[in-house]
Amino acid sequence: MLRHTGRGIPRNFITYAASKLPMLRKISLDTCDSVEGDFDIPTFSDRYFLSIVKIARCKLQKCTLDLHNMESRRAPVHKEMLVLVWNSEKLTRTVVKDRL
Known about the structure:
1 helix; 38% strand
């Protein structure tokens, strides 16, 4: 799981990670960490053993827990998540709305 690591993950990371880690089954990423703002979805043959991909879309929300720093800071929170699940026959796509 790679969450809120900063903009630096390349667009083709899912396919690259699946090719370098052939036993990888599940991966969770945030679009706010992508260099280009999105990720490529692997084709059925390029996914190796990868069966679940979760891609969360973030939005900025004011952070009110930091009482020592009076400046209003904004922290990324999950808005919704795209869940891709491959079984032996098909790809299922689901969008899950996250609660704030």
